[in-house]
Amino acid sequence: MSHTVFNDYWNRDDGNNKLILNYPLTKESWILELGGFEGWFTQKAVSETESNIIVLEPINQFCEKIQTKFHDNSRVHVECKGISDKRRSSIIYVNGDSSSQHIQVSGLKNEIELYPLEYFLEKYNLNKIDLAQLNIEGEEYNLLNHWISTGQINLIKYLQIQYHIIDETSRDRKSKIEEGLLTNGFINKWDYDTVFTSWENTKI
């Protein structure tokens, strides 16, 4: 993610401490973290909430670090899988927290396994997600469009999204997703452009 004025606004407002987990989460809540990397957000969620956390990280070397770090915490469920609109395999180019399926950010590539939302809902016997945190390096466009078109978006109370500009269509795709969220009864809580944006589902 390239630095913009919105990074400065985020830092000014201390977003990493005052916004990123400022939701009414309880010990009955479930957080779905998409793109765990090495567990920074996971650690904050463990420290600042009593909620259950499902962490998806499809790159094994990063996933195994999260598994090791939280192996004795029963609230943290780590899946070495990614998420998509359907069950499929994909190739991801590996470059730390900039690893991407959509941009060749390095010469190192891994095959990863992707699963749809319903796989995780069924596995953990859930009928809703209290907070979905998305940091999935460009796959957010396909995923959110799918959730909106199928109505699965209505299973999520709060959405926290980091958008990635992966090509010249990204801005238009972001706008269309925002229109879809508004149509489905979501309201925008705050917006720092491609740093993070937060939405609340007013219907649940």
What are the main properties of this structure?
three-stranded mixed beta sheet; 204 residues; alpha/beta; 25% strand; Rossmann fold; 7 helices
Count up the domains: 1
Largest beta sheet, briefly?
A: 7 strands, mixed
Q: How are the strands of the biggest sheet laid out side by side?
A: 3-2-1-7-8-10-9
Helix content: 25-40%
CATH architecture: 3-Layer(aba) Sandwich
Q: What do the pLDDT scores average to?
A: 92
> What overall form do the CA principal axes indicate?
globular
Treating each run of at least 4 consecutive H or I residues as one helix, how many helices?
7
Indicate the topology:
Blueprint: H1 5-12, H2 15-18, E1 30-34, H3 40-48, E2 52-56, H4 60-69, E3 76-79, E4 82-83, E5 88-93, E6 109-115, H5 117-123, E7 129-134, H6 140-150, E8 156-161, H7 170-183, E9 186-191, E10 197-201
Parallel strand pairs: 1-2, 1-7, 2-3, 4-6, 7-8
Antiparallel strand pairs: 5-6, 8-10, 9-10
Question: In words, what does this structure look like?
Answer:
The chain has 204 residues and is α/β, with parallel strands linked by helices. The chain contains seven helices and ten strands. The chain has one domain (5-124, 142-201): Rossmann fold (3-Layer(aba) Sandwich), CATH 3.40.50. Helix 6 (140-150) links the parallel strand 7 and strand 8. The termini are far apart. It has a seven-stranded mixed β-sheet, with helices on both faces. A three-stranded mixed β-sheet has the order 4-6-5. It has helices at residues 5-12, 15-18, 40-48, 60-69, 117-123, 140-150, 170-183; strands at 30-34, 52-56, 76-79, 82-83, 88-93, 109-115, 129-134, 156-161, 186-191, 197-201.
